[in-house]
């Protein structure tokens, strides 16, 4: 098993439409000036659209333009270096220092947004470096079948995740209603840190009511809120109709009359696989008392899904449309991360959520003594 980092740090699909225009200036000082500079904006379909270009000379380059709709995220392309992300809200004069040779990195100064962006990226780069070392150690421990070492490395990974998230949370209040704040939310887990998302949505509605990129963020949060309300304790569990490994459609409602644990998981998910032995044990203990498990896999690789079922000894109903987080079931339940569980009573109503380990065992003991 390989530790998987799933911090989504690339903002795609960001809409940048406009009601007002504000000027910006981008000046570049570039070593090895052998290319052109291109400025791109991500359109509403997540595709980069070139909006300006400039020849890079011995004196560098300069671009001037108008930020629309209060600002957005841009990409600056220069030679063989990775795209440089620019956060533009208008009124900035950004200074870019770069070398166009492959492997080089650029430095951007001139605004608070870019200052915070650099801080966030520094945190991420440090975390990625730690994870690379942990992945190597984990692979070595796996080869040696050293489960104690594997567990220790997993704990170190989780500790590292907690540390970076805590640092980002501490930065967010300083950044205010800004593009940097929007970028920072990609370091958070929307489900676990949803209170912060709600607070930011309320703030953006008040402070940036007419800026489209903030409107998009608010709309996303409101949709999740609606889904969460639909998963309220006591409410009916949304129906799921997905195929089993044998391509037979089995619905969630077909299991009515039992307590059903809807288990969202995947073969690639380390924490899910770690929890599976506990679910197997409890399933065997309570299946004759009216307990059933309905496994919903968010795999996209059929073989990986089937191999995990066999290796982990999952004998209960398993379904998947192999669409990762675009699964119809994941969208119906607003799933943002896994493992995620929903416990349903014999009438099909939700009685608990996010039960794992001792909490799941205690709940089953309470309901099925």
CATH homologous superfamily caption of the largest domain: Glutaredoxin
How many domains comprise the coordinates? 3
Low-confidence stretches: 1-20
Net shape: elongated
- Overall mean pLDDT stands at 88
Biggest sheet: strand arrangement: 13-12-11-14-15
Q: Which class best fits the helix and strand makeup?
A: alpha+beta
Main β-sheet description: 5 strands, mixed
**Secondary-structure element pattern, one letter each:** EEEEEEEEHHHHHEEEHEHEHEEH
**Name of the CATH class of the largest domain:** Alpha Beta
Under CATH, the topology of the largest domain can be stated as: Glutaredoxin
End-to-end distance: 36 Å
Radius of gyration: 24 Å
CATH architecture of the largest domain: 3-Layer(aba) Sandwich
Strand content: 15-25%
Description:
By secondary structure, the protein is α+β, with helices and mostly antiparallel strands. It has 3 domains: 21-106, Transthyretin/hydroxyisourate hydrolase domain (Immunoglobulin-like); 115-230, no CATH class; 241-367, Glutaredoxin. Helices cover 39% and strands 24% of the residues. It has 9 helices and 15 strands. The chain has helices at residues 112-143, 147-175, 179-184, 194-207, 212-230, 270-286, 302-312, 328-332, 357-367, and strands spanning 21-31, 36-42, 48-55, 61-68, 72-78, 84-88, 93-99, 107-109, 241-243, 249-251, 259-265, 291-297, 317-319, 340-344, 350-353. The strands form 4 sheets. It has a 5-stranded mixed β-sheet, with helices on one face. A 4-stranded mixed β-sheet has the order 4-1-7-8. A 4-stranded antiparallel β-sheet has the order 3-2-5-6. Strand 14 (340-344) and strand 15 form a beta hairpin. It is elongated, with a radius of gyration of 24 Å.
């Amino acid at each position: 098993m390989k530790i998987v980092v799933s911090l989504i740090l690339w903002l795609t699909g960001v809409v940048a439409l406009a009601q007002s225009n504000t000027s910006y200036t981008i000046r570049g000082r570039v070593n090895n000036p052998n290319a052109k500079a291109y400025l791109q904006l991500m359109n509403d379909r997540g595709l980069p659209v070139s909006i300006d270009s400039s020849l890079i000379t011995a004196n560098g380059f300069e671009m001037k333009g108008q930020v629309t709709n209060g600002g957005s995220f841009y990409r600056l392309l220069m030679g063989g270096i990775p795209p440089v992300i620019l956060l533009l809200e208008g009124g900035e004069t950004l200074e870019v220092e770069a070398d166009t040779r492959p492997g080089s990195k650029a430095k951007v100064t001139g605004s608070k947004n870019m200052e915070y962006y650099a801080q966030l990226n520094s945190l991420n780069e440090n975390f990625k470096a730690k994870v690379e070392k942990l992945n190597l150690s984990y692979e070595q421990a796996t080869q040696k079948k050293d489960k104690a070492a594997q567990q220790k490395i997993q704990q170190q990974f989780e500790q590292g995740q907690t540390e970076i998230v805590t640092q980002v949370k501490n930065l967010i209040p300083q950044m205010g209603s800004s593009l940097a704040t929007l970028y920072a939310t990609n370091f958070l887990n929307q489900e676990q840190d949803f209170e912060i998302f709600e607070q930011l949505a309320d703030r953006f509605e008040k402070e940036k009511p007419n800026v489209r990129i903030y409107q998009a963020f608010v709309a996303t949060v409101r949709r999740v809120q609606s889904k969460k309300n639909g998963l309220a304790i006591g409410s009916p569990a949304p129906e799921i109709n997905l195929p089993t490994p044998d391509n037979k459609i089995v619905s969630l409602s077909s299991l009515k009359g039992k307590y059903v644990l809807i288990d969202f998981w995947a073969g690639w998910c380390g924490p899910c696989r770690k929890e599976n032995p506990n679910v197997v044990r409890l399933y065997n203990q309570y299946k004759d008392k009216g307990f059933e498990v309905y496994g919903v896999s968010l795999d996209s690789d059929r073989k990986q899904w089937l191999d995990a079922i066999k290796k982990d000894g999952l004998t209960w109903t398993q379904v998947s449309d192999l669409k990762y987080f675009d699964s119809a079931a994941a969208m119906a339940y607003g799933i943002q991360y896994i493992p995620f569980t929903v416990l349903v009573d014999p009438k099909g109503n939700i009685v608990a959520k996010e039960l794992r380990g001792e909490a799941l065992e205690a709940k089953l003991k309470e309901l099925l003594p």
